[in-house]
Amino acid sequence: MDKHHVENRRMYDRLGRDYAEKRKSESQSFWNDQVELPGVSQLLTPHLKGSTFLDLACGPGLRTKYWQEKVENYFASDFCYSLLSIAKEDHNMLGKWIQADAENLPYKSKTFDLVLSSLLLHYFQDLNPIFKEVSRIIKPGGSFVFSFHHPFDEILSHAPSDKFPVILRNYHDEKSYQWGMLNMSFTSFHHKIETIVNTINNNGFFLDELVEPRPAPESKSINEKAFAYTNRFPSFMAIKATKRS
Description:
Layout: H1 3-14, H2 16-23, H3 30-44, E1 52-56, H4 64-68, E2 73-78, H5 81-90, E3 96-99, E4 112-117, H6 128-137, E5 138-149, H7 151-154, E6 176-181, E7 184-189, H8 193-202, E8 205-211, H9 224-230, E9 236-243
Parallel strand pairs: 1-2, 1-4, 2-3, 4-5
Antiparallel strand pairs: 5-9, 6-7, 8-9
């Protein structure tokens, strides 16, 4: 585990409860609930019924009930001790919970029909270990649905809060970048679309479907500024990759 990954986990462990409370705010969780969630739901919905499902990087379990009600067997894991303890506490031990790193999961091979990873991959510089591990635990013909910071959004400069960013960094330079939340600073890594597609293909999957989600018009009243931003610039990308037989 590299130093950036360790430091990101330390940040979430230190302010886990604050993060969980922030995500319960409809306005502050606009990006997650009105943009990212509809994107991954679109990709997952046709396959949920009767599935054995892993919520990889489940965080504080804010979507546990949402997914658990739709699948046959729900499992969840996260690398962060404090977030996972909140999930267990808030859901009274619903589902099956394991603390684990995404690159080394304690599940048997060919266990899952579906694996979901929401907004996790951008924390890793090398994506291959995660895809290799998910390829191991997923059944042939199963689907890996994952979302991440949109590569275009990653190269936008950070402008004052009342303005849209207009300056672009070098798209081909796959470097780390810093971003903040709740007085926490996180390290993420920019990946070109080419890199992501090649990683999918090189680890036993094929790219089945890709979406660049935007919020529904009726969500504008929840957070007008966020609504305007993500309707002008793509915030997230979500992909369904299917395990080759």
